[in-house]
Amino acid sequence: MKQKQLVAQAIVDATEGQLSLDEVMSKIEVPKTYDLGDYAFPTFILAKLYHKAPQQIAPELVEKISGDAFDKVQAVGPYVNFFIDKKAFSHNILNQILDQKEAFGQQDLGHGGNVPIDMSSPNIAKPMSMGHLRSTVIGNSLAELLKKANYNPIKINHLGDWGTQFGKLIEAYKLWGSEEEVRQDPINTLLKYYVHFHQVDEEHPELDDEARAWFKKLEDGDKEATELWQWFRDESLKFFKSIYAKLGIEFDSYNGESFYNDKMDEIVSILEDKNLLQESRGAEIVDLEKYGLNPALIKKTDGTTLYITRDLAAALYRFRTYDFVKSLYVVGNEQTNHFKQLKAVLKEMGYDWSDDIHHIQFGLITSGGKKLSTRKGNIILLEDVLNDAVDLAKKQIAEKNPDLPNKDQVAEEVGVGAVIFHDLKNDRLNNFDFNLEEVVRFEGETGPYVQYSHARAMSILRKAGQIDLENADIAGLQDEGSWEVVRQLANFPAMIKRAVEEYEPSVITKYAIQLSKSFNKYYAHTKVLTDDAEKNSRLAMVASVAAVLKESLRLLGVKAPDEM
RNA sequence: GCGCUUGUAGCUCAGCAGGAUAGAGCAACCGCCUCCUAAGCGGUAGGUCAUCGGUUCAAUUCCGAUCAAGCGCACCA
User: Fold this and answer.
1) How many CB atoms lie within 10 A of CB A64?
2) CB A149 within 8 A of CB A496
């Protein structure tokens, strides 16, 4: 960043103030290839000003720039290319990383502001599928990134523990369930009832009425309904927590939908007070015509509540409890309309903080091109995928590094890491069709590739023995291979900023791959542990790579084993 | 029908808030372990950036239309 400003200033000086620093800064770019330098300024905008061809302007600018601050300044066609002083630059950046360690890249974007993140939110009595993984893993990474940028994230697991579905589940249990069967295998058994309910329901729609009646009882506090609900919820949560443990993810709150049960009356009365509620077809709605949205259904004909009513209560509760600067919802893009409605209703209620609510949407995972559906039994169990990945990692270790200590732990870290990394690799919004082989792939642009790069770096440092790098003379490096690595390292803080601003963990995933690539390339061509004058600088670079890779992985929620 | 999202190599995707010959990974083919972990490195091959228009000195990138795909469109979440 400082370097870029230096370049911009040089251009401003050379043009004798014809362009402002900001103008120049916005035009400066990074050339695609190494031989074109580190920064480039295209002279097209000067063509009109000078009434000359850009190709002619570029060399004239070069004449006026003093080369002291740079290795080289060169005109190539219409571009002025800058080669920065590699040795001085790498000296600075390596010392900075060695000094700051894992704090490198930390910055104050958030001033400590609270940011509740609604994430994961699986439904009680249903297994977790690959769909839940996305929300969980994206939310977790955003939390780490926000923390790094000095926000205070609050991870909220907004459990789907309320709604008509429980009426269905209770009805199904009453019809076909057995207590013993549920005790033995809670989730799968409950799921079985639920799927069965929907099958039978196709031909006997009257079951829906029964289910609605049960949910009504539940909302009214009926003893039997509440006990069953509590039981299902406890069993489910036990199971979910085992998966979160595997993923290494913890939550600050498990307040799910049921938590807002007693907080909805207030919402309804506020809506009434502000004359926002209307009756329509026997239900209570808020008209959102002026937002170009469908009306928000606040209460059903039978008086029970809906998803949005609870989300309104939750939004208000979070605002009061956390006084947030932003409130995030990591939820699939099929719910885009819901969040538009939510924000619109809050706006109508006079809460201007509704602008601070952001729906962090993500693409759909399909299987065989079809949407995953718990009801239709078309699901991919997260548990299975994680287990498959860990098994595969075990096989790889047996094959490639049979003498590795704590094999099981490493297999866990690599297998689970591969799955998480894969989910965070692409743009959030992309849909993807689930393909097990791809998810548990360990070669190419994958999590294990990054972990492996880190392990290699650690291995060199181990072999280097006890060297006090912090006090050693790190003169800097200037060869082409290390330069690629160094400029990647220097990019880390900017990447964090971008990832936070765009709520996009994939920025970090891609960055980690790029850094790994340049490091592996370097590794293949340069022997680090050669005794010469630059050895300390090389080791400093290796230590920096290890630190930044480990930190990148941490921000993604992936472990970085020292050996694998 | 309306709204949102997407359309780049056989497959999966990058392309940094328009710029210099469009990049990776996988799959295919060919090389590289007497040398810090070959989960690696290098090479070959593979593209009318969906189509048509517009803005601009410059468009894969911005705008519009068309076509195609996915998701959503009140008593599920």
Assistant:
1) 13
2) yes
Confidence label for A400 from pLDDT (cuts 50, 70 and 90)? very high
Q: Who has greater pLDDT, A173 or A165?
A: A173
Could you give the 3-state DSSP secondary structure of residue A529?
Answer: coil
Q: If pLDDT is split at 50, 70 and 90, which confidence band does A205 have?
A: confident
Residue written as token pair 């921000």: A555
Run of H or E residues at A357: strand A357-360
Enumerate long-range contacts of A51-57, CB under 8 Å, 24 or more apart. Answer: A53/A78, A54/A78
Which residues 218-247 on A are within 7 A of strand B at the CB atom? none
In 3-state terms chain A splits into helix, strand, coil percentages (rounded to 5) of 60, 10, 30
Residues A14-39 pLDDT 10s: 988 888 888 899 899 988 887 889 99
Distance CA A23, CA A10 (A): 13
Using a 10 angstrom Cβ sphere, with 0-12 exposed, 13-18 middle and 19 or more buried, the burial of residue A32 is: exposed
**A78-109 residue pLDDT tens:** 999 999 999 999 999 999 999 999 999 999 99
Strand B, CB < 7 A, residues 526-545 of A? 526-529
As given in the structure block, the two tokens for residue A150 are: 């000095």
Distance from CA(A269) to C1'(B50), angstroms, rounded: 52
Nucleotides in B strand less than 7 A from protein CB: 3-6, 12-21, 23-27, 35-42, 57-58, 70-77
Secondary structure (DSSP) of A432-482: EE--HHHHT--SSSSHHHHHHHHHHHHHHHHHH-S--TTTS------SHHH
**Per-residue model confidence (pLDDT) at position A223:** 93
Residue A190: its H or E element: helix A186-203
Q: Domains of chain A, with CATH numbers? A: 2-84 (3.30.1360.70), 385-426+437-556 (1.10.730.10)
**How confident is the model at residue A198, as a pLDDT?**
83
Task: Kindly determine whether the C-beta of residue A442 is less than 7 Å away from any atom of nucleic acid strand B.
Answer: yes
DSSP label at A411? Answer: H
* DSSP calls for A201-255: HHH-THHHHHHHHHHHHHHTT-HHHHHHHHHHHHHHHHHHHHHHHHHT---SB--
Residues 193-212 of chain A within 7 A of strand B, judged by CB, are: 212
**Average confidence score pLDDT of chain A:** 92
How many whole angstroms separate alpha carbon A302 and alpha carbon A41?
Answer: 67
Helix then strand count (H, E) for chain A reads 21, 13
Helices (H), A28-129: 44-50, 54-64, 86-100
Q: What is the pLDDT of residues A407-427, one digit of tens each?
A: 999 999 999 999 999 999 999
Closest nt by CA–C1' to A563: B37
Strand B interface, A 273-332, C-beta < 7 A: 280-283, 285, 292, 294-295, 297, 300-302, 306-307
